[in-house]
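Forwarding the complex inputs:
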Amino acid sequence: MILALDETNVDKAMVIANETAQFLDAIKINWPLVLSGGPEIITRLSDLSDVICDFKVADIPNTVRLIVEGAVSRGASGVIVHAFPGSDSLIAAKEAAGGAEIYAVTEMSHPGGMEFTAKHAEEMALVGIKCNVDGFIAPGTRPDRIRAIRKIAGDKEIMSPGIGTQGGDAMEAIEAGADHVIVGRSIYGSANPREIASELCRRIS
Amino acid sequence: MILALDETNVDKAMVIANETAQFLDAIKINWPLVLSGGPEIITRLSDLSDVICDFKVADIPNTVRLIVEGAVSRGASGVIVHAFPGSDSLIAAKEAAGGAEIYAVTEMSHPGGMEFTAKHAEEMALVGIKCNVDGFIAPGTRPDRIRAIRKIAGDKEIMSPGIGTQGGDAMEAIEAGADHVIVGRSIYGSANPREIASELCRRIS
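Prediction (whole assembly, two chains):
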């Protein structure tokens, strides 16, 4: 289980991370936490858990390289990048990652994701395979889409967000082919993050 | 003229910004500088010039909102977002921007940009118009593509990167419909950024 730590108050974020780390495979953070607390937060969290930087990198190859290098040098174990900027950007991400992992987003789970990304999800997954990414992000709210990406992904990792508050069910996502479920608000927004994390962890293992 | 300050050494970046600001309409920065120097760099640069955060935001609406709010609260005058995550993400960016401007990327100028983005460039520009973005990014290396986006953009701003080292010509881009040219390495990579900025500024005004 991966915690999406979408809390922008750094002190609160650190408390939640401390309380839940023992039940987690990784902590996933996004840019808002870096904008509020500075990039040092990556290093601080990496002392507690693996950190996946969900930076949804979507730039030209040289900028992708600099972002991935920056995240990894701060302690990230993985970086999430978009597949839609194409093969050269994905290859740049893989080359910059060193021992860290690169996960590609193919399809986005919000309504706007249907306008452009859903049309090309399988095609983008194939580009990801060609560029040797380590895994994919597939929507936990749509098990049929996890199944579709699993067919292409082979034995690569699939991580599925949208579990809990957003409506996705952890067991359904895992049965559909997800290796890791990503849980956010249900944990960090609860009065007792530790208890919820422990309970969810027990339920899916 | 906009300076793409793609220098990750914060001290060097500040020196270049100080030397060139008087010739610039804005300074454009990207995530690598935030990852190396912290988000405070946005505020420091905003004392010298308008700052456009070229964050190529490509996320779900709530995360887009948090990123745009974070950048604007640090002093950004504009934020660059991707159009491909769809209308709801663009609307979230506009709502979060307050008085700041939102620019949408339609087509990316690197080779991988042909794989997915170029196919939908006009369509994404139309989504941008519908969501009332303030302007678009169009490749300075391809004047014909600036013309195509100008037809859709009406009187909205067009900013064109890729001028100078990457091969784009400032006057050609302006003649094709760009309001602002974005120059990076030719200025920040030169031995005398001030002189180059002054000369370029004179040439296009």
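The mean pLDDT of chain B is 96.
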